[in-house]
Design goal:
The chain is an alpha+beta fold. It folds into two domains: about 240 residues, BirA Bifunctional Protein, domain 2, CATH 3.30.930; about 100 residues, Anticodon-binding domain (Rossmann fold). It is built from 16 helices and 16 strands. It has an eight-stranded mixed β-sheet, with helices on both faces. The chain has a five-stranded mixed β-sheet with strand order 13-12-14-15-16, sandwiched between helices. Helix 1 runs antiparallel to helix 5 and helix 5 runs parallel beside helix 9. It starts with 17 loop residues before the first helix and ends in a 7-residue tail after the last helix. Its EC number is 6.1.1.21. It is found in: Cytoplasm. It catalyses: tRNA(His) + L-histidine + ATP = L-histidyl-tRNA(His) + AMP + diphosphate + H(+). Keywords: Aminoacyl-tRNA synthetase, ATP-binding, Cytoplasm, Ligase, Nucleotide-binding, Protein biosynthesis. This is Histidine--tRNA ligase.
Amino acid sequence: MAEKLSAVKGMNDIAPPVSAHWEWLEDTLRSLMRRYGYRNVRTPIVEPTALFIRGLGEVTDIVEKEMYSFEDRLNGEQLTLRPENTAGVVRAAVEHSMLYDGGKRLYYMGPMFRHERPQRGRYRQFHQFGAEALGFAGPDVDVELIVMACDLWAELGLEGIELEINSLGQPAERLAHRQALIGYLEEHADLLDEDARRRLHSNPLRILDTKNPAMQAMVNGAPHLMAFLGAESLDHFNRLRALLDAQGIAYRINPRLVRGMDYYNLSVFEFVTTQLGSQGTVCAGGRYDGLFEQIGGKAAPAVGWALGMERILELLKEQRRLPEPVAPDAYAVIPDVSALSVAMPLLRQLRAQGVSVAMHAGGAEGMGSMKSQFKKADASGARYALVFGAQELEQGMVAFKSLRGDRAAETGQQLQPLAEVAAWGPGLRGF
């Protein structure tokens, strides 16, 4: 016997009935995007490694430690499994001149890949859904995206998700803050852990996001970027706040909110919960006006967010908001294989009318008794059993039996003419 193979640790199979929850969430997200005028974009899972080095920043954790990168054996090109998709969407927009006739509202969903220590809400292959507004400069679109996420939480019935916002200003403002921050951290070098010392001169802003309890008090006293913002950056942030206030969107200003990619500027935001432990960020994003130029395009403003599908589903499970699995409308009970020549064409007609029907199958050896078939019909969750018995078929009939609700207690079965499937078929979709 061959050795049993398993999935790579941290890269999970998604099978029924759990996959039904994924489909439901995906359908909900697609519906939300349509209502806001966002259109789907699909980019490759594999991108040039340089895209992420330039876009995310060479000294970010993602580029330094988390990317799955390899050399193409055909031509020696350096390639990477995408660790996020904003850079890929912008690369596609530049490559295909998407903004030649104005801004674009786009969304994507799919798997991303990072070297991680697998744990609840954090996997090596994980799935993101993202919304990107390209070519729009004002804070009105930033707020549109934030409100869109709030609408999603309401639609899903999720509670306890809080919004945190901050402004990262512009590059020159961040540079001035960076110099002041390095000076402050050098004064407290004895309190820095190994990771912070490594970042001190390469990416000191990320030290503010430390989870080390021993550094919290020191970090809380560090210079705030907000104090270095110029008039235009402050105006953008204040207009964003005013628009949020006008719509009754509650938020908290978090001066330590910095995000993990170098491409962000001006407004950044996160939606967080306390119900998922250390993986409490369920959706995050912000403005990234410089990314188009970083990857070789013409300057263009842009803003977006991404959410982790696994974390949203975990939170839905935690709050008991996941829907019941969708059951078929009917289950076809086939007492004998000789009935298949009549049953299968009729079931096809029903499905063409939008009726979902599961058919008992297994050939002459696996049909089983009527009793066992009815057990499977009941276990399927179907509302009706359609019985293709020999006597019924001789009369040109099919027998209906209700399996759910009050009608399930009724004795006997109702007969319906096979020839009138167009008339009685739609009735199977509901009582």
